[in-house]
Design goal:
By secondary structure, this protein is an alpha+beta fold. Among the domains are: 103 residues, Elongation Factor Tu (Ef-tu), domain 3 (Beta Barrel); 61 residues, OB fold (Dihydrolipoamide Acetyltransferase, E2P) (Beta Barrel); 75 residues, Helix hairpin bin (Helix Hairpins, Orthogonal Bundle), CATH 1.10.287.470. It is 28% helix and 32% strand. The strands form four sheets. Strands 1, 2, 17, 18, 19, 20, 21, 22 and 23 form a nine-stranded mixed sheet that branches. Strands 3-12-15-14-13-16 form a six-stranded antiparallel barrel. Helix 2 runs antiparallel to helix 3. It is elongated, with a radius of gyration of 41 Å.
Length: 401
């Protein structure tokens, strides 16, 4: 081999060696963190529909011509507010007639009472027959019954006069009036005229439906004591409208249905929410979160640190030799940007939490400890503190959502 060739081979080998040692001289750094250990709680999410606690159709109880309307369409009304007036003159006349008839019956009663007392004295002296005495006492009883009937007629007529003024049976928002002044209103029957409607707004209900699997889960949790049944305890529930971030409306469960709907395989539940700002309106769709577990400790990682390969979830970790390993994991709920790690990661593992797209399995990296920025106390637990579940009964075989 010529001298020139030997020199060329030596230079090539030296260059290759330099290239092989270059990564070691300037090894890339990987931001790694150990999973967080925090106390958390799960919330199950459903789609619900807001409904009024009370909804009333305002109908007339007497017939007549509508005389006046005493509200503006769509305004808030208070219980007892005057809404409509039906012409009361025919009913006042009927009341005057009933009172006059009652006065006549009372006068007759006084006369028959005196006659019965006189007959009793005469019978004691054998001045009249027993048949005549019994006839006068019978007239007295008839007069007493007539007076009672007259009083009932006066009360009925008085009520009819009162019913000509239609007042609000509850506080809430009224709809528009459906009958204009001057029209004949039919009242007191199944076909009574519908005048308007009123719905209460504060508090307000939200109905939602839970599937059969969720029902069975809640039942088992109640039996084990992990989380009480909403039949027995006002478990906290939170609500979000379509234009809101987070779940700002806090309430509690106050009803669970007594059976599952066989056509849908779901059971209906209901939460009640304060609504002092009147933002929650009957008919709105809402997203509802119901307490889905008891408190428990979990290992958490930022959701961005978890990769997806088709149906498999994985994380990248550095082993004892600082070599990248791919670790399949089983994940749980997402809690405020952090994913619950159920399997595959331990509390002491060094997990690469950022830049995973540019890192390859088998690569040797220098670990750079990067503490995970997370609150010491998650807001989801604050909901429990704000709405404590006060037990009103023991959870048992009838436990439900």
């Amino acid at each position: 081999m010529s001298k020139a060739l030997r020199i060329g081979l030596a230079l090539a080998a030296l260059a290759a060696g330099c290239r092989a040692q270059a990564p070691a001289a300037g090894a890339a750094k990987a931001p790694v963190s150990r999973p967080l250990s925090r106390e958390v709680v799960d919330w199950d999410e459903y789609t619900g529909r807001i409904q009024a606690v009370q909804s009333v159709e305002i109908r007339a109880r007497v017939s007549g011509y509508l005389e006046s309307v005493h509200f503006s369409d769509g305004q808030m009304v208070a219980q007892g507010d005057l809404l409509f007036v039906i012409d009361p003159r025919p009913y006042r006349a009927a009341l005057d007639g009933a009172r006059a008839d009652l006065a006549r019956q009372q006068s007759k009663l006084e006369f028959t009472r005196n006659e019965a007392q006189r007959a009793e004295r005469l019978l004691a002296r054998n001045a009249i027959s027993r048949e005549e005495y019994e006839s006068r006492t019978t007239e007295l009883r008839d007069s007493e019954a007539s007076v009672q009937a007259g009083r009932a007629a006066v009360e009925s007529a008085r009520l009819n006069v009162e019913f000509t003024e239609i007042r609000s049976p509850l506080s809430g928002r009224i709809s528009h009036h459906l009958v204009d002044v001057g029209n004949l209103v039919n009242g007191g029957t199944a076909q009574s005229s519908l005048l308007t409607t009123i719905v209460s707004l504060d508090p307000i209900h939200c109905y939602f439906e839970a599937d059969e699997r969720s029902y069975l889960k809640y039942t088992e949790m109640a039996r084990s004591g992990e989380r009480p049944s909403s039949r027995d305890v006002p478990n906290p529930v939170v609500l979000q409208l379509a234009d809101e971030k987070g779940f700002p409306h806090r309430g509690h469960m106050d009803f669970v249905d007594n059976q599952l709907d066989p056509s849908t395989g779901t059971i209906r539940g209901r939460g009640v929410f304060p609504n002092s700002d009147l933002k929650l309106l009957p008919g709105l769709f809402a997203r509802v979160r119901l307490l889905g577990s008891g408190r428990y400790h979990a290992l958490l990682l930022p959701d961005a640190a978890i990769g997806t390969d088709q149906s498999e979830r994985f994380v990248l970790v550095l082993n004892a030799e600082n070599v990248v390993e791919r670790r399949p994991v089983k994940v749980g709920r997402l809690i405020e940007g952090f994913r619950v790690m159920q399997e595959g990661v331990g509390a002491s593992d060094s997990v690469i939490v950022s830049g995973v797209q540019g890192i390859h399995v088998g690569q040797k990296l220098e670990p750079e400890e990067t503490p995970i920025q997370a609150p010491e106390h998650f807001a989801s637990l604050d909901l429990l503190d704000a709405e404590p579940a006060a037990a009103v009964g023991a959870a048992g075989a009838n436990a439900a959502p």
